[in-house]
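Supplementary notes (optional reading)

For those who missed the lab, this is the record we used. Protein: Cell division protein FtsX. Length: 301 residues.
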Amino acid sequence: MRVQFVLQEIWIGLRRNMTMTISLVITVAIAMALFGTGLLLRQQVSASKSYWYDKIEVSIFLCAKTSSNPVCQKQDVTEQQRETLKAQLAKMPQVSDVQYENKQQAYARFKDRFAGSPGFVESTREGDIPDSFRVKLKNPEEYKAVAQAMLNQPGVDSVINEQEILKRFFRILNGLQVAALTIALIQVIAAVMLVGNTVRLSAFNRRRETGIMRLVGASNTYIQLPFILEGAIAGLIGGLFASVLLIFSKKLLVDRLAGDVQLVSQLGWSVVILVIIVSICFGVLLCAVSSFLTLRRYLRI
């Protein structure tokens, strides 16, 4: 097989269908970028879940004069009530650790956690966050047993499970992931159709050459290879453009999400590189397979 001839045929095909090739590259780039973004969001959700689910705590907020719960009767929790609640929590089999946090400690932790949002911190004053018990569970799924035991106890204002907050947040991330993958699927379908049209046009323009090649005994593989490589090269270029878009996506979306939202852990570059490699390989394979299937139908050999 003459490599020079194959490369020449590839260049001729790409040059003759330059506008369609450019359209194909752009479509593949967008499709692979969205596909990669969906994978990045998936990895971000998985990493965040692994990081935070073993740090989940149940916050039991105690009564204060500003509490709206009628159980509190607009009074601060008493020392006796606080000690009774702590003893009850320590005896529960679901609880692994109990830490008391007063108003000053709660405000200091609040300022540290939301240091990146100065406006939010400035609008909150010391004393707005009531005393609380921060309860570490042996199994985060056993939250309901602790909540039911503590609710309506004297001195308890409310019980908040951080797991429920995380679940709602992760549902938003999962929704973004599904949206990105759905749009990517639509773009992939468009790319497949565009590959088919490009290969059909290229095969039609070179029907005399392929006819002569058949007469002189050229193999099917030798005739098909330039067309398949044209699609693969377009997919490769589109994948490379998609890798640039994925780097921007990591910088502008994933990193900003991790920086602005304290519930999200940082996603490493090793994961991004792996997603880029997968996206490029998928783009090349998609275009090559689409070209091959189109040739079997429209190139009579």
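If you only remember one thing from this example: The chain has a mean pLDDT of 76.
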